[in-house]
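User: Before I run my own analysis I want an independent prediction to cross-check against. Here's the chain; please return only the structure tokens and, at the end, one sentence I can use as a sanity check.
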Amino acid sequence: MTLEELIRYAKENHCSDIHITVGTALAIRRYGTLQILEPAPSAEESRDMIFSILDQEQVHKASAGEDLDVGCMLRDGTRIRANVYHQRNNLAASIRLLDDIIPSFEKLGLPPIVKNFAELPNGLVLVTGPTGSGKTTTLASMIDYINKNTSKHIMTIEDPIEYIYPHNRAMIHQREVGRDVDSFATALRSALREDPDIILVGEMRDFETIQAAITAAETGHLVFSTLHTTSAAQTVERIVDACPIDGREQVRAQFANVIRGILTQQLIPKADGSGRVVATEVLSANYAISNLIRENKSVQITSSIQSGMREGMHTMNADLVRLVREMQITKEDAMRVSTVPSELEKMLY
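Assistant: Structure tokens:
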């Protein structure tokens, strides 16, 4: 089997990921569940599949034992994101299949307030959630909406580049960490001299990147980024905890001033087995929430979200209750992904 044949099979079966490991069976992830494919290909076939997505320089690096993040388009037009690594002295790759067309907010099932986030003039908007929850696709949908509706200069900083945006009303420049620039933080500092209106940072991995993103938002830009957190309150804590102890008060104040919205999301299997549906938590920063952040009272943020329904806010548990009552997901799956299952149990009865 070739990689093209494997990807065709995965796409026909609505899979999100492919795992190739030299010396063992292939695996695919369908609607969040891993499935092993038998029979296993030969070691040479597996190695050829992995090398087919790499250029000569990347093949050399992978052969020398380096881990690689790769984003590319295959000959059939399929875009993929891949991580190539080694385990037990054998080559392996995890490949994420990306949509050929960037889906709209409505197709993704995102709440209406996401459109408001995309129309903000400045500030910081974060999309958070665990790995594989669709954060990158949500950001791509927001950038695509801006591209179609406004004349803006958008800079994206990604590792690797996943979605390609055609020029529409906006002008979009995409920079890849490791190819076009050394790091997220370096690219962010440089972006401030490149006349952007909007900056997308693929991930805020360290304090240097967080500080640069906050500075960009302070100077009048609209900044989008992601974090691996599972609630708005946890997101605030992660931002503050990432900085040195003696600078946390300042960062807390800066973050309170620039944060405009936090969208937390999870992908959950549909009750009928036909796919997955997104569950979200939405924070839209108002005066009260900004004060809670500034005064180090992030434990009260969830209560403010609950009382902010008229502003388009809702907690993850509230959205899980909605999905259960609409019979889109099962109660068992809702309890599994909830960060406060005891509260969810009470809300469901």
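Sanity check: Residues 105-347 form a domain with the Rossmann fold fold (CATH 3.40.50.300).
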